[in-house]
Amino acid sequence: MDGLTLATLVRGWKEEWVGCRVDKIQQPTASEILLSLRHRQGSRWLLLSAHKAYARVHFLTGQKPVAPPEPPRFCMQLRRHIEGGRLLDVRQLELDRVVQFFFSARSELGDLNYFVLTLEIMGKHSNLILTTAHPDGQPDEIIDAIYFVDSSKSRVRQIFPGIPYEFPPTQKKIHPLEMTAKDLPFLDKQDWLGKANQLSLIKQIAGLGPTSARESLYRCSDVAEEAQLALEIRRLATFSLRHPEPHIGLDEEEKATAYAPFPLHSYPKSIAVSNMSEAVAQVFHRLVAIHQETGEYKALSDAIRKAQDRLRGKLAKISALQEDSHEHDRLRMFGELLLAYGYSLPRGAKEAVLPSFEDEEKMIHIPLDPAKTAMENAQTYFRQSSKRKRSIEILEQEKRSAEADLLYLDSVLAQLRDASLQELPEIRKELENEGFLKKIEIRGKKPAKQSQRPSQPDHYLSNDGWSIWVGRNNQQNDRLSIKSARPHDLWLHVQDGAGSHVLIRREGNQEIPQKTLEEAALLAAYFSKSRDSSNVAVVYTEARHVWKPNGARPGHVLYDHQQTLFVTPRQVDMEALLKRKNQV
């Protein structure tokens, strides 16, 4: 977020929101604050974020983030001092990325007090700071901050309660409306649109950021002259400060990538939006979603792979123990030989060499405990033989359980690859319920009731107009195959592998077109571990032949009366089918 964008936001908020009341205050994350502002036209949530990578300020346009049950320290300070107060002014420190919200609020005794909430957008040094204020809106003493800065972190400027607030050091940059070609830094004309030229402009000209610097260079790239560039910068600054036209820049996939108070010709497509706050919100909604999804995806995939490594280690130990357990026949033979020939052994012997029952010429060497008699050694061997014989079935059960868990985790990992941000919490909860992740609990708090509706399977329309449903996680698979499926619906799944459950809806014994069956099989293969394979075996049967064993993991079912179809989910063939998602 650059200074020109912030200037456009501040100008709009001065006109519309000064005088509004602070209704509620929440802190959904460690670096973000939400203020519910109310005026005659209604109320809206204002987001102020001091995130190290995504510091920003704008009104929310989508769903409000969920606040934690216990409000953090900074949130409690804001509620104590400015909740119920009035917004008197919104100010920007010149064209720097510092914005101040000036409030008045009455204390419990009825005294009128003044406060300033300052958002400093400075990359990894971004911060939100609450201070007392003078009646003219000048900040005074620091009450609290999102991040404290002591002398060990900065010798220039400290931030902690009880000391006077100091503005960030000023950057001696040139105002964009006052600049000329002589004020421009040295620019590389061979790489006119390069990052080096953009950074040079950002360091020299106040209010410019990556988007505005790129746009300035792009608009005069045909001539690549400093005089023309200076003219374009003044023109864009005039747009921003006097006649803003908020726009969003879209990339080749038509995804919101950039925002500015002017049209963005340097992007494949530029669309106008109603106000600057909406433009900022749209772009950051996508960026933050990608950031959250990437972080949560990595956390879940790492947890799954660690669990798989533990299971593989367990299987290796079971395999070694199984080899030992099959020695029970030999141990029993030792005991029987000692019973038969033990009378001939001297007391205190360390080894017995006795003829085999099957071949008397073959001698068997049996280790002995010299402290025990031959009969006592025989009983020891009988006990060891019985123990190892009993362990065969136990180890086999443990092996089957570990293999089933590995297959289950494979299915979760395959589903995680295509999961949306909204589906990740459901996958996390499933792993917690199955014991592969620790549940996060807050001491003294009862678990919150699940108010959110379960996510729904994806719906596709076949080329013949038939409905095809695809479960995207194990919870959806169970609901689709066991609860939602009707007896004569056709159920599909990749054979002997992890993947989605697929269902073709039909009435009675209505014949399913071959093309629809192939498309459903393609979806089953595509949403499985075999996505990149050829000739993938997909089984299909009526839903009445599918059932869930007692105690089975989520997504695990058994089936019979199946037939097999072989398909290859080539990306070029899948594109048209995937575009028919959610068509009814």
UniProtKB/TrEMBL annotation:
<dbReference type="InterPro" id="IPR051608">
    <property type="entry name" value="RQC_Subunit_NEMF"/>
</dbReference>
<keyword id="KW-0175">Coiled coil</keyword>
<dbReference type="Pfam" id="PF05833">
    <property type="entry name" value="NFACT_N"/>
</dbReference>
<keyword id="KW-0820">tRNA-binding</keyword>
<feature type="coiled-coil region">
    <location>
        <begin position="290"/>
        <end position="324"/>
    </location>
</feature>
<keyword id="KW-0648">Protein biosynthesis</keyword>
<comment type="function">
    <text>Key component of the ribosome quality control system (RQC), a ribosome-associated complex that mediates the extraction of incompletely synthesized nascent chains from stalled ribosomes and their subsequent degradation. RqcH recruits Ala-charged tRNA, and with RqcP directs the elongation of stalled nascent chains on 50S ribosomal subunits, leading to non-templated C-terminal alanine extensions (Ala tail). The Ala tail promotes nascent chain degradation. May add between 1 and at least 8 Ala residues. Binds to stalled 50S ribosomal subunits.</text>
</comment>
<dbReference type="InterPro" id="IPR008532">
    <property type="entry name" value="NFACT_RNA-bd"/>
</dbReference>
<dbReference type="GO" id="GO:0019843">
    <property type="term" value="F:rRNA binding"/>
</dbReference>
<dbReference type="InterPro" id="IPR043682">
    <property type="entry name" value="RqcH_bacterial"/>
</dbReference>
<dbReference type="GO" id="GO:0043023">
    <property type="term" value="F:ribosomal large subunit binding"/>
</dbReference>
<dbReference type="GO" id="GO:1990112">
    <property type="term" value="C:RQC complex"/>
</dbReference>
<protein>
    <recommendedName>
        <fullName>Rqc2 homolog RqcH</fullName>
    </recommendedName>
</protein>
<dbReference type="GO" id="GO:0072344">
    <property type="term" value="P:rescue of stalled ribosome"/>
</dbReference>
<dbReference type="Pfam" id="PF05670">
    <property type="entry name" value="NFACT-R_1"/>
</dbReference>
<feature type="domain" description="NFACT RNA-binding">
    <location>
        <begin position="460"/>
        <end position="551"/>
    </location>
</feature>
<keyword id="KW-0694">RNA-binding</keyword>
<dbReference type="GO" id="GO:0000049">
    <property type="term" value="F:tRNA binding"/>
</dbReference>
<keyword id="KW-0699">rRNA-binding</keyword>
<comment type="subunit">
    <text>Associates with stalled 50S ribosomal subunits. Binds to RqcP.</text>
</comment>
<comment type="similarity">
    <text>Belongs to the NEMF family.</text>
</comment>
